[in-house]
Design a protein that fits this description.
EC number: 6.3.2.-
Strand order of the largest sheet: 4-3-2-5-1-6-7-8
Low-confidence stretches: 1-12
InterPro entries: Folylpolyglutamate_synth (IPR001645), Folylpolyglutamate_synth_CS (IPR018109), Mur-like_cat_sf (IPR036565), Mur_ligase_C_dom_sf (IPR036615), Mur_ligase_cen (IPR013221)
Keywords: ATP-binding, Ligase, Magnesium, Metal-binding, Nucleotide-binding
Family: Belongs to the folylpolyglutamate synthase family.
Protein name: Bifunctional folylpolyglutamate synthase/dihydrofolate synthase
Oligomer: single chain
Length: 454
């Protein structure tokens, strides 16, 4: 294994006081930001740390293209409604780096204190001994150290990218795996077909460990079923072994032996009904007869997952629009994400019509045309923005060209505030404004909204 480049080889382990921003900056100095899917580096580092991955609470390991975070939010809320304690590992973060590591506690989990995360990262840095390792890998190892030393009933573990070679896939025997809906994304790392991507996601399947499978394209399901048959992993498949749908403003979950009539989830959109269904199926296997309808009701009502078609509460962004205008935020960035949000907004418009304006920024490498296509006939105008501090984001002018070619009216702006003010002025009345296209843009919007203008 090669050492760090000479300019960083002498870097000392993390020490001192950090905010999330300065901690992330330091980690980016220490480790390559490129993605390099492999398990060898993680296995070496975890061995040097005394194998914290072998001392974790029961694990629910979650992969998929869309819906992973929402499913985890539902599962966490259900578990906490039952009085259970759940650790959570997700990525990327929206505002603060330590959001990625949530430690279980009385009254619900909370992000690990920054000082404690620094200590775990310093231990991982020292154990790594200056070898090359990615930012996600060192963070995952540090999180496993933290999780291994804090009591919990459950660890909800989200893959970072793919599954088979993802840094989280060092867990040999999880309690349960979940594969959420798969679509085209990250083609340079996972493959350019649904089948290739599904094969990577199916890499989290383990012999004898049941897997909840969210609603899939037929070609993805075939790949998952073939891998499950090869290793002996029992599948519980949406549309076959369980089903979920909305009926009369209620959520209905059904198996051969169970029929549940529940309130709709707090998270908005038909896609969240599907995500909630996968969470109910997972909770049924995790908790068995201990699971109750009141716990499910509480979980659906209390689940929080920021920037997933979230209507923003009062805050700094509303200083730039008229009273009565709605500001919504969503971090979806692929074709399936665009379809889900567009469908939810169309349903919203039927119930409460309002002129819809889109503020759009996106990272290069994403299929911008495919994300935008589902919004045809739904929005009045697009305002394109750069994503601050992200050098690999599309220039606003490039996004205008893409939108224009797709038949939209689009305007380039210098940033989020200009886009908000122009959208409001052009609407001429109360409006519905969606900020979308990237979790990085969503994080920037959230930071501003909470009062940090940096």
């Amino acid at each position: 294994m090669n050492k760090r480049p000479p300019d960083l080889a002498g870097a000392s382990p993390l020490s001192g006081t950090y905010t999330s921003a300065t901690l992330l900056e330091r980690l980016q100095q220490l480790h390559p930001q490129v993605i390099d899917l492999s398990l060898g580096r993680m296995e070496r580092l975890l061995a040097a740390l005394g194998h914290p991955e072998e001392k974790l609470p029961p694990i629910v390991h979650v992969a998929g293209t869309n819906g992973k975070g929402s499913l985890i939010a539902f599962l966490r809320a259900i578990a906490e409604a039952m009085g259970k304690k759940a650790h959570v590992y997700t990525s990327p973060h929206l505002v603060d780096f330590h959001e990625r590591v949530v430690l279980a506690g009385e009254g619900g989990g909370k992000p690990i204190p920054e000082a404690d995360l620094v200590k775990c990262l310093a231990r991982a840095e020292e154990a790594n001994g200056g070898e090359l390792i990615t930012l996600f890998e060192i963070t995952t190892a540090a999180a496993m150290v933290a999780f291994s030393e804090a009591p919990a009933d459950l660890l909800l573990l989200e893959t970072g990218l793919g599954g088979r070679l993802d840094a989280t896939n060092v867990v040999e025997k999880p309690l349960l795996t979940v594969i959420m809906p798969i679509s085209i994304d990250h083609v340079s790392f996972l493959g350019d077909t649904i089948e290739k991507i599904a094969a990577e996601k199916a890499g989290i399947l383990k012999p004898g460990v049941p897997c909840i499978v969210g609603r899939q394209p037929p070609e993805a399901l075939k790949v998952i079923e073939r891998r499950a048959a090869e290793i002996g992993a029992p599948l519980h498949v949406a549309g076959r072994d369980w089903n979920v749908f909305e009926q009369h403003q209620r959520l209905v979950f059904q198996t051969e032996s169970v029929l549940l009539d529940l309130s709709l989830p707090r998270l908005v959109g038909q896609h969240q009904v599907e995500n909630a269904g996968a969470a109910i199926a997972a909770a049924s296997l995790i908790f068995g007869e201990e699971l109750t309808a009141p716990a499910l009701e509480a979980g659906l009502a209390n689940a929080k997952w920021p920037a997933r078609l979230e209507r923003l509460a009062p805050g700094a962004l509303y200083d730039h629009v008229d009273e009565g205008t709605e500001i919504w935020l969503d971090g979806g960035h692929n074709a399936a994400g665009g379809s889900a949000v567009a469908l939810a907004l169309a349903e919203m418009d039927e119930k409460a019509p309002a002129p819809l304006q889109l503020i759009w920024g996106m990272m290069e490498g994403k299929e911008a045309e495919a994300f935008l296509a589902p919004f045809k006939g739904l929005i009045e105008r697009i305002y394109t923005v750069p994503i601050p501090d992200e050098h690999n984001s599309f220039e606003p002018g490039v996004l205008v060209d893409i939108a224009t070619q797709e038949g939209f009216e689009a305007v380039a702006t210098d940033g989020l505030i200009e886009a908000l003010e122009r959208a409001q002025a052009d609407a001429g009345d109360t409006a519905r404004i969606l900020i979308c296209g990237s979790l990085y843009l969503a994080g920037h919007a959230m930071r501003y909204h909470r009062g940090s203008r940096a």
